[in-house]
Amino acid sequence: MTSPLLKVAERLVSGELSVPLFGQANLWIEDSITDARSAGFAQWCIQSALEGSAPGQVELIVFDDILSGLASGFTAINNGGERLLATISDQGELKDALRQLRIHIQGVNRGMRGLAPTLPDYRRQSESVFEGYKLVVLAVDVSFLDDETQNQIATLLKAGPRAGVSFLIHSTTVGANPYLVGLCDRYVVKGSSIVTPLGPTALAWMPPRPEDLIHTAEKIALGIATTTPDPISFAALHADAPEWRESSADGITFAIGRQGPEIVQITLGDELNQRHNMLITGAVGQGKSNLISVIIHSLCTRYSPNEVELYLLDFKEGVTLQRFAGLGDSDYLPHARVLGLEADREFALGLLRHLFGLYRERMKLFKSEGVQSLRQYRELHPQATLPRAVVVIDEFQMMFADKDRLSDDLADLLTKAVRLFRAAGIHVILASQTIGGNIALMGSVGEGLFGQVPVRVALKNSLSESHATLGIKNDEAAHLRAREAIVNLDYGDLSSNQKTAIAYADEDLLARSRKRWWGSTRDSAAAPYVFIGERSRSLDDDAAMLADLTEQRVSNGSTPVALLGATIEVDGPPLSVPFNRDVGRNVAVLGPGAAVPELVSIGMALGIQLGSSLNVIVLDLLEPDPEWDRARKVLAQTLKAHGSSFSDVTGAEVATKIRELAAQAEGSEAPGSGTTLVLALGLDRSRDLPTEFQDLCKLGPAVGVHVVGWWLKLDAFQRHVGYGGSPYFDTKVALRLDSQSTRQFMGDALLEWRPADNRALAWDAAHMVEPVIIIPYSAIPSTTASA
Fold first, then answer.
1. Per residue in 403-417, pLDDT tens?
2. Is the dihedral of CA 116, 119, 120, 124 positive or negative?
3. What pLDDT is recorded for position 239?
4. What's residue 364's pLDDT?
5. What are the boundaries of each domain within the chain?
6. What is the pLDDT of residue 438?
7. How far is CA 133 from the centre of its chain?
8. pLDDT per residue over 250-276, tens digit each?
């Protein structure tokens, strides 16, 4: 069935009057100083063009240099949600608009490819809503325009109608260039009759009333607001592409929409044209998330997980990618290797480092085989499984939101990635609502980044963002309408613009596909690593690793380790610090963050590894608290289950126990085989902590006595450990500690740190080059989590 959106006013008809327009002609309506009806006839032509076309299919571009108010009755047309009436203010803007029309006509001609004589014919043949129509209204004394402008108009008058661009010129012909007039059908209003190119038409013609024009504009706006456009079906784009039948050896191709009847496809990994990376931009609400979904599902439809693997990172609260994570059930997108939901800059850095590791592995493999690229390797080993990796980073500009060392590291790695990864078959797709500010923020690095991204897809956006995406002379994205995009495969070169109608990612349909894919790979595919930046972490999450550590401890007597929380990198392994008998093997936790789960988790992890050889002593100076009572009970039950001993010291007994432990540490000549872990909580509440505490921290590790303490404030920590006592705590953890105190605590005057929820800064100075940000244990684990 033919779409109602194909309807267009090829003729304007009133009784015996028939005026050819779209696809056929331009109109020149003779301006008359003595008869205002000529302006009324021009308004009738505009009104008829709008009413004779489907809502939203005709765009008005108006230059009213003589201030006639010709189009003032049509301003409500923009109330339907699309900007269909554009007003030109001066001759400078007119020249810009004429240049843009020239680019538009070139694009229409490229899209029609000579298959039909006019745009209306092409749309009928293809039964597709390819491009729209433009009515350019010039209310101006044409003879006053400069020669350059008149020459531009002459070219467009000749080429425009067949491409759906018609001019309506309301001007006197006195002094006008006859050639311009000759490129239009000329109409002269004489009283109630119209003199047409075919001769006078005798009819009782009356100009439309202002309220009629307003009503027409409101009706068109309502039609736009209530008309559901014919979506381009995602399924139709892949009707002839059997699932998982294509090879990625020579590159990957995905479909995103149509240009008329033609499917628009993009290929990455094209070594001939060196197209490996891609940039997507679009203003809020213009369909960027939909486009990303179309790209991902197009790839997953054509290629099996053995041919394409996905690394997906979302800085926009996980909205775009959450549907791929299988959260709440057991279904995942089998092609996904990593899903970063609610990602942050630290995880982006971890992901890029992981990808560089993958790049180095592949290049080492290629070198050993005497080849230089994934394509050459696949030619040599046709049966090998070596998928291309596609990295999608949505709202990537958030990586550079703050100008600091981290943003510099990210910019450096990302720029190197888009330059180097191509040979290893790793492709980067960057998406953003805005990139203009990031080019300035990133300076020469930004130029280096975007200079490696030839494929640009620009959804509707502002003029400045169009320039940032496509180039300073390419503002085509600013003139798009909803559900359209400019696809450019040549760094934004104007001649490469391809206007595309983007397909609709029907989530009901695509969810069924994902379920089917996962069902067919469930037994062979691993679930992706899902990073959710705000999710609380507990020792339960690392039970598998803790079990491995315990097995190693039993089998070969390996050194036990304390687990501090998840590192912010792919697969998120916990940060572990060895608990041997070296001087300084103590842990200081500092700051107002929730430290109880952190200390309890350290105790539980060591208890599970050491079993009966561990003695845990809690020095409890905390105020009574239900959460701490529950945590202490969990700790005690877990330690008991693994044979560790547990005791709880409170109040005035704390000082006595410290002196006792310090005396044992100082007097021991032959350390025993057991380990004593002193968990000291709420130490800020003690103003008279015995000085023996300093001896305990200094001498304890050598005899198997380790202190894990928590202070709220730096001055309390410094007072308790004494001058020069800080180095006896090799491992330091800052929980929501202010920046200045953290620098003093860690002993790094140049350290950059901003306290944040669900984040900690950790440093084992004896085994790490510098501090790292982790997700600390902030939830109490179950008693069986690590059993």
1. 888 888 999 999 999
2. positive
3. 84
4. 97
5. 4-226, 234-327+346-507, 539-776
6. 58
7. 33
8. 999 999 998 888 899 999 998 888 899
What residues form DSSP beta bridges with 311? Answer: 338, 391
Q: List, for the chain, all residue ranges whose pLDDT scores fall below the cut of 50.
A: 1, 440-444, 785-787
How many Å apart are CA 687 and CA 356, to the nearest integer?
Answer: 51
- The answer to whether 341 and 324 have CB atoms below 8 angstroms apart is no
| CB 590 within 8 Å of CB 599 | no
Structure tokens at 157: 């008058």
Q: What residues contact 82, with CB distance under 8 A and at least 6 apart? A: 56, 224, 481, 482
What pLDDT, on a 0 to 100 scale, did the predictor assign at position 328?
56
Of 287, 457, 323, 316, nearest in space to 394 by CA: 316
Cα–Cα–Cα angle for 278, 281, 283, rounded to 5 degrees: 170
**Distance in angstroms (rounded) separating the CA atoms of residues 391 and 335:** 12
CA quadruple 700, 704, 708, 714: dihedral sign: positive
DSSP per position, 298-323? HHHHHS-TTTEEEEEEE-STTTTTGG
Tokens of 468: 């940032």
Which positions ≥6 away from 376 have C-beta within 8 Å? 366
* Closest-CA residue to 550 (of 613, 614, 604, 608): 608
**234-327+346-507 and 539-776: same fold?**
yes
Q: How far is CA 481 from CA 19, 257, 461, 465, 467, in A?
A: 28, 15, 10, 15, 17
HSE at residue 254, side-chain half, CA atoms within 13 A, is 24
Q: How many CB atoms lie within 10 A of CB 330?
A: 8
Identify the pLDDT of residue 441.
45
Give the contacts of 758 (CB within 8 A, at least 6 positions apart): 533, 534, 535, 536, 537, 775, 776, 778
**Pair 498, 110: CB distance under 8 Å:** yes
Reduce the DSSP state of residue 290 to 3 states and report it. Answer: helix
Backbone dihedral angles phi then psi of residue 413, each to the nearest 5 degrees: -65, -40
Polymer length of the chain: 787
Name the CATH topology of 539-776: Rossmann fold (3.40.50)
pLDDT at 324: 81
Options 3.40.50.300, 3.30.200.40, 3.40.50.800, 2.40.30.60; CATH for 234-327+346-507 is 3.40.50.300
Integer-rounded Cα radius of gyration of the chain? 36
Q: How far apart are CA 389 and CA 157, in angstroms?
A: 49
Does this model's pTM top 0.70? My answer is yes
Phi and psi for 229 in degrees, rounded to 5?
-65, 155
Question: Quick one: DSSP state of residue 262?
Answer: E
pLDDT for 198 equals: 82
Query: String of b and e for 438-470 (b: at least 16 CB within 10 Å)?
Result: bbebbeebbebbbebbbbbbbbbbeeebbbbbb
DSSP string covering 540-593, please? GGGHHHHHHHHHHHHHH-PPPEEEEEEESSTT-PEEEEE--SSTT--EEEESSS
Cα 581 from chain centre: 47
- Measured CA to CA, the distance from residue 2 to residue 326 in angstroms comes to 39
What is the bridge-based pairing of β-strands 388-394 and 308-314? parallel
Superfamily of domain 4-226: P-loop containing nucleotide triphosphate hydrolases (3.40.50.300)
Residue 401 Rama label (left phi>0; alpha psi -120 to 50; beta): alpha
Angle at 432 between CA 232 and CA 87, to 5 degrees: 70
Contact 325, 530 (CB under 8 A): yes
Neighbours of 394 (CB within 10 A): 25
Phi and psi based region of residue 744 (left: phi greater than 0; alpha: psi -120 to 50; beta: remaining): alpha
Exposed / middle / buried, residue 105 (Cβ in 10 Å: 0-12, 13-18, 19+): buried
8 A C-beta contact, residue 410 and residue 345: yes
Rounded distance, CA 275 to CA 301, Å? Answer: 21
